User: Which sequence fits this backbone?
């Protein structure tokens, strides 16, 4: 182990001198957290809507008025027929057309089931889904208001969809996004910097020189991984600080628990980086393979799309995605204040991953270089 | 036998069906400058990599500095220095940092390292430039620094793989002066080169052709065997014979 301090000193010197790496390490958290948290906002406002009001009643006017006063809708006017509505959709003048049938008020008053027709531009599936939910929500509010005013007899309760979820305030939305971006940061450092750093030695040819010295393979690997393990944890600290200072995200649970998880998570990702470096010869290849892995980890992590919404087979895949566990733990600990007992399962899994992955990685690396 | 620091017996290395080194046997004496000559792809580098423990032989025996390279790799590594074909210093570290790093990983004590590094900077006249990044140095200086750094732990044998390729004639000359002074200090030097005129600097040479040793003797004897005046002539005769 006598060589290790020398290896570490060399790595930190090289990282400090690397004019591409150093700014990325310290500017990346700011860019991601200051820009992405706001930009990656799935809420939509000003949904362009037109109405076909075949009822022309007091009730239908009240319903339309609710849309007019909503910040989420931009009422563009009325159409006289379904064809006219579709033509507006075709020409992309509106994204939603709500058709109120003749007899709407009468049916409401006699407490019959009433049906509204909704035409939505479905090109952007996510936006379409949100538009539908927003419309549904306003309609239910309307329904509830007339029910409570006694205009119709008491009967159906409003639907079971949680409206507050969709009308999540921007602040709460950031609270979901920011912890996820912290995970993204840590993962990027672990995967990219590790794999590229090792491949760089191979690319430059300096690995040959290292291999004729009495340095042990494990010393070399520790010397390569430890600096990025430390940097990864620093990034997490930096990101959390920005989160607290700029967004005042709540830290309900224990920060130490979070760091403990990150300490176990990083070896999994860095092990992956080591494997990438064992199967590639240039930094370019390492970058490409890392990106491929990164995209899978992220899209299957629950950061952008809830895992519960994925098909069953995809949900099974996420069970092997370390990033999914980290995202879950970060959100649970930061926002909900979960304790070690609450996330014991996730800790168990990540510890297992950590052991398995580093073992495979070290074996793969030794095999290549020997 | 005691005076042989490298003993190779039927050393062979295959890459799939390709036989890069085909059953070569040779001995290198202590303090000798031994040249491995041959065209590109003749197997010089592969042979050298096996001697350094970077590559395992497919078959055959190889002893370096009294240790079996196959199972005493660590002991071998402590007794040898190596300068690879590709530049082996860190361009983004300074002269002093490179010296300290390599000295450190060979386990030199602080005082020994300090003394060696003084001596090295004296020899190369690099005291002024010790804080400069290696990337900013001229190629010739870089190569000489790489050679000195390969000797930082005072090895008994040093392996030099094409150290003079791509450097100007003056630097080549200076480089050979350094090699000769190392040999005078008792360090055995094993060098590969495709500059045939450099053979004359070696005490003994071997010429590799297609993985085999086509010649193995002192430069004078090799020339007289092939009744040639220059090493170029020898080389042409050997390669024509084999093709």
Assistant:
């Amino acid at each position: 182990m006598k060589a290790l301090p020398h290896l570490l000193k060399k790595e930190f010197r090289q990282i400090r001198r690397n004019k591409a790496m150093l700014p990325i390490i310290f500017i990346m958290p700011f860019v991601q957290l200051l820009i992405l948290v706001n930009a990656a906002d799935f809420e939509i406002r000003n949904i362009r809507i037109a109405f076909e009001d075949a009822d022309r009643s007091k009730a239908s006017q009240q319903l339309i008025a609710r849309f007019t006063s909503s910040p989420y809708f931009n009422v563009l006017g009325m159409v006289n027929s379904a064809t006219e509505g579709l033509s507006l959709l075709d020409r992309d003048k509106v994204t939603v057309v709500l058709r109120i049938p003749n007899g709407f008020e009468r049916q409401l008053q006699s407490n019959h089931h009433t049906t509204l027709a909704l035409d939505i531009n479905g090109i952007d599936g996510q936006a379409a889904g949100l538009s539908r939910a927003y419309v549904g929500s306003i309609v239910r509010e309307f329904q509830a208001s007339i029910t409570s005013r006694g205009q119709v007899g008491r009967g159906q309760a409003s639907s079971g969809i949680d409206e507050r979820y969709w009308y999540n305030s921007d602040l709460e939305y950031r609270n979901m996004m920011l912890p996820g971006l912290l995970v993204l940061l840590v993962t990027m450092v672990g995967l990219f910097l590790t794999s590229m750093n090792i491949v760089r030695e191979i690319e430059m040819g300096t690995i040959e020189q290292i291999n004729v010295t009495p340095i042990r393979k494990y010393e070399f690997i520790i010397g390569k991984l430890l600096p990025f393990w430390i940097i990864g944890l620093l990034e997490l600290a930096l990101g959390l600080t920005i989160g607290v200072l700029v967004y005042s995200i709540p830290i309900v649970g224990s920060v130490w628990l979070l760091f403990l998880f990150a300490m176990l998570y990083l070896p999994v990702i860095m092990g992956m980086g080591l494997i990438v470096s064992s199967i590639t010869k240039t930094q370019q290849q390492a970058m490409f393979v890392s990106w491929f892995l990164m995209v899978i980890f992220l899209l299957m992590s629950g950061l952008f799309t809830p895992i519960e919404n994925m098909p069953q087979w995809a949900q099974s895949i996420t069970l092997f995605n370390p990033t999914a566990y980290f995202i879950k733990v970060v959100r649970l600990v930061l926002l909900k204040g979960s304790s070690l007992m609450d996330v014991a399962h996730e800790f168990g899994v990540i510890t297992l991953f950590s052991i398995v992955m580093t073992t495979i990685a070290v074996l793969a690396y030794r095999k290549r270089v020997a | 036998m005691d005076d042989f620091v490298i003993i190779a017996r039927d050393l062979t290395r295959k890459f799939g069906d390709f036989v890069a080194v085909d059953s070569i046997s040779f001995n290198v004496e202590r303090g000798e400058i031994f040249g491995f000559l041959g065209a590109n792809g003749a197997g010089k580098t592969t042979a050298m990599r096996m001697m350094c423990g970077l590559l395992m032989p497919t078959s055959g025996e190889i002893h370096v500095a009294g240790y079996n390279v196959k199972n005493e790799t660590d002991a071998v590594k402590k007794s040898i220095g190596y300068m690879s074909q590709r530049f082996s210093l860190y361009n983004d570290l300074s002269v002093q940092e490179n010296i300290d790093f390599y000295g450190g990983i060979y386990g030199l004590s602080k005082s020994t390292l300090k003394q060696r590094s003084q001596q090295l900077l004296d020899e190369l006249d690099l005291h002024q430039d010790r804080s400069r990044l290696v990337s900013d140095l001229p190629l010739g200086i870089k190569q000489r620094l790489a050679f000195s750094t390969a000797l930082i732990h005072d090895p008994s044998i040093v392996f030099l793989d094409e150290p003079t390729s791509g450097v100007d004639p003056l630097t080549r000359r200076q480089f050979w002066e350094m090699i000769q002074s190392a040999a005078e200090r008792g360090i055995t030097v094993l060098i590969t080169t495709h500059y045939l005129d450099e053979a004359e600097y070696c005490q003994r040479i071997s010429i590799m052709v297609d993985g085999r040793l086509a010649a193995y003797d002192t430069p004078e004897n090799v020339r007289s065997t092939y009744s040639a005046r220059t090493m170029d002539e020898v080389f042409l005769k050997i390669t024509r014979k084999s093709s």
About this structure: The longest strand of chain B covers residues 4-15. The mean pLDDT of chain B is 91.
